[in-house]
Amino acid sequence: MFINDWSAKKLGLTALLTTSIFSLSGQAMATHIFDTGIPADWDCVGNCGVLGANGVVTAAPSGATNYGWVASNTGITGLGLAGIGGTDGTRLRSSVFSSGAGDDLVFNFNYVTSDGSGFADYAWSRLLDDALNEVAVLFTARTTPGGNSVPGFGMPAVAATMSPATVTIVPGGPAWSPLGTYSGSCFSTGCGYTDWVEATYTIAAAGNYILEFGVVDWSDQIYDSGLAFDGITVAGVPIGNSNGSVPEPASVALMGLGLIGLAAARRRKTA
User: Fold this and answer.
1) pLDDT band at 203 (very low <50, low <70, confident <90, very high)
2) What angle (nearest 5°) sits at the alpha carbon of residue 202, between those of residues 211 and 143?
3) Which of 75, 63, 72 is nearest to 33 (CA)?
4) Looking at the DSSP assignment, which residues form a beta bridge with residue 108?
5) Which carries the bigger pLDDT value, residue 112 or residue 22?
């Protein structure tokens, strides 16, 4: 009876632990990077922040409370891509994260611009190695008075697969607070927003990487532009998340075995 009784209880405890472990993993997986602000170990040069649904930018597609953003409003000079140029802008880089070969980097972005008609502001994302060497230009978005805003014209070829693959602007003066005094304004044809676009990039080699987002004004420093982003994962796990992490499988297993062992010891003492 003792063996059968303990075996039944052990099976029940194992099932309970398994359920709890998966629940814990699910809660950790659901932790969102920007819900409590830009992570402290990320590097912002210029004007960065987080927001919930605001103006033309709807709530984060991941279901998070907040998305991250960068804006050229009150930006820093000299941050444009090499060979493309720009005036003032903002750059945000993640902390270093690890990836295995063949892991998918996935995120969402939304380009918002109050500029237009020949003032070709632009935004981008790049994957860098941990020595800040460029691995890939993931996407570009650019103000244009006609045609596709994503990928941006006159920009480097993009490496990520985007859904939708090409995007024209949703026209009008976009109301969005990171645009500052230009929120709701529109300088001629080309201003608006792209709405959320999903980007996926398969990382070829295992290693340590940094994700970069940037936006700059081009040719002038008025009628600003910005970029919202959200849902950043590698192999389904949030990157650069100082607010929480997914438990390592080995740690979870050891925790479960330890609890089972503790329960068994207590059972023997009372037998």
Assistant:
1) very high
2) 55
3) 63
4) 198, 230
5) 112
Interatomic CA distance for residues 172 and 170, integer angstroms: 7
Map tokens 């033309």 to a residue: 56
Q: Would you call 99 helix, strand, or coil by DSSP?
A: strand
Q: Is residue 190 classed as helix, strand or coil in its secondary structure?
A: coil
Distances (CA, A) of 193 to 56, 57, 74, 114, 170: 7, 8, 20, 9, 5
pTM strictly above 0.70: yes
Nearest-CA neighbor of 183 among 46, 51, 55, 49? 55
Burial (0-12, 13-18, 19+ Cβ within 10 Å), 132: exposed
Using 50, 70 and 90 to split pLDDT, how confident is the model at 259?
Answer: very low
Question: Looking at per-residue confidence, does 23 or 126 come out higher?
Answer: 126
Which pLDDT score is estimated for 157? Answer: 96
* H/E segment holding residue 90: strand 88-93
Could you tell me the sign of the dihedral formed by the alpha carbons of 146, 76, 238, 29, in that order?
A: negative
User: CA angle, 70 as apex, 103 and 93 as ends, to 5°?
Assistant: 45
CA atoms within 13 A on the CB side of 31: 21
Sign of CA dihedral 51, 56, 60, 64: positive
182 with 46: CB under 8 angstroms? no
The alpha carbon dihedral of 261, 266, 268, 269 has a sign of positive
Residues 6+ apart with CB under 8 A from 171: 189, 191, 192
What pLDDT shows up at residue 78?
86
Residue 78 tokens read as 């000299």
- Rounded-to-integer distance, Cα 91 and Cα 48, Å: 8
